[in-house]
Amino acid sequence: MFPVQQFRDDTPGCSDIIHFNNAGCSLPPKSVVEVVTQFLQEEAKAGGYELAALRSADIEDFYAAAASILNAHPHQIAFVNSATDGFTKALSSISFAPGDVILTSINDYVSSQIQFAALQQRFGIRIEYAQNTPTGEVDVEDIDRLIKALHPKLVSITHVPNNTGLVQPVAEIGALCAKAGVWYFVDACQSAGQIPLDVQTMHCDFLSFSMRKFMRGPRGTGALFVSQRALDAGLLPMLPDMRGADWTGKGSFAPLPDAKRFEYIEQSYALVVGAAAAMRYYENANPHAVFTYTQQLSQYFRTQLSALPHITLLDKGKLTCNIISLVSAKSDIMTFRNTLVQNGINCGAAGKKFALLDFIQKDVEGAVRLSPHYYNTFEEVDQVIEVIKRTGI
């Protein structure tokens, strides 16, 4: 039996609201909040540098915890402020020249798309998009064809896009990249904490995620995985600092041998230990059990929503997950969202600019986003459906 009531008891916010905005920011367990606040209280008494030295083992557990849930090694993990922070540092470690190709999908995260466009404008690189299959995923066969034809410098895929429940076939793509020797980045921002992750089966060189989403950690924290291949090749951020490198002489420096070369000196160690606590909580919850429960919950949610004739579900893919995107024929996305919020139900809404290519293809101006998690219940889903019916949104 999945212990959902225990997770709800551990989550104070569950007593006040129905929280279906986990793709934006989850409700943290009370243990995570306690770890962060206790660290800050101790820091106020001992001093920042002094407490960091005293609590070094707890700080280092961040790397061990991230490595454990990713099937990696601690030396392959860097602390970052967000998934985008990790992505930016990884992207900057690759030397691009005019004509180099980045191969991606139309469903990749908006910040990634903007950074690709910035590289195109600044360095003259090319952005190429693989086709989608009729069921919505990026076409692995087309990825294979484009790798062989274009010899891209980087393949970048968002595992679960920000505004749809689609799950991309990142392991199959990774196998193609490994065979071709192409750098491969996986954005796991929306999959970490809801879908078990294994960087070995993904064959990725970089993977990043934020803690605040389905991992239920503090805002302003994230993790970046760096493969041994990337470390051995000497990849490092374009602008490292004294955290990631040692100053060895005039105009020279030596990067650290591990993934910490992707870190910057300024970190909130209270948040670092909070992020470690969140990952340990998820690990103890059993990632595979979490995935099984949330698959059942999300599919029930979709079934109930699809029974409403004015609701159109937008999610595609052979496998869908905890992000449910929809539009209503009776109200615009902000009216829909605001009505739910006024009735004690948190959810999200995204305009066209946040998933431009995907929303153009779907011919919508945006989408409402409902994202359940493992402390949510089937009864809460029923309450949402009742509110939609009662308010007529």
Descriptive terms for the model:
Aspartate Aminotransferase, domain 2; alpha/beta; 393 residues; 4-stranded antiparallel beta sheet; single chain
Short description:
With 393 residues, the protein is an alpha/beta fold. It folds into two domains: 4-27 and 286-391, Aspartate Aminotransferase, domain 1 (Alpha-Beta Complex), CATH 3.90.1150.10; 31-284, Type I PLP-dependent aspartate aminotransferase-like (Major domain) (Aspartate Aminotransferase, domain 2), CATH 3.40.640.10.
Alpha-beta classification: alpha/beta
Integer average pLDDT: 97
Strand ordering within the main sheet: 2-8-7-6-5-3-4
Which outline best applies? globular
Work out the helix count: 15
Structural domain tally: 2
The CATH superfamily of the largest domain is identified as Type I PLP-dependent aspartate aminotransferase-like (Major domain)
Explain the layout of strands and helices.
Layout: H1 4-9, E1 18-19, H2 30-46, H3 48-54, H4 56-70, E2 77-80, H5 83-92, E3 101-104, H6 110-123, E4 126-129, H7 140-150, E5 154-158, H8 170-180, E6 183-187, H9 199-202, E7 206-210, E8 222-226, H10 228-232, E9 245-249, E10 252-255, H11 269-285, H12 287-306, E11 311-313, E12 324-328, H13 333-342, E13 345-346, E14 348-351, H14 356-362, E15 366-370, H15 378-391
What does this structure look like?
The model has no long low-confidence stretch (mean pLDDT 97). This protein has 15 helices and 15 strands. The chain has 393 residues and is α/β, with parallel strands linked by helices. The protein has helices at 4-9, 30-46, 48-54, 56-70, 83-92, 110-123, 140-150, 170-180, 199-202, 228-232, 269-285, 287-306, 333-342, 356-362, 378-391, and strands spanning 18-19, 77-80, 101-104, 126-129, 154-158, 183-187, 206-210, 222-226, 245-249, 252-255, 311-313, 324-328, 345-346, 348-351, 366-370. The longest helix has 20 residues, at 287-306. The protein has two domains: 4-27 and 286-391, Aspartate Aminotransferase, domain 1 (Alpha-Beta Complex); 31-284, Aspartate Aminotransferase, domain 2 (3-Layer(aba) Sandwich). A seven-stranded mixed β-sheet has the order 2-8-7-6-5-3-4, sandwiched between helices. A four-stranded antiparallel β-sheet has the order 11-12-15-14. The chain has a two-stranded parallel sheet with strand order 1-13.
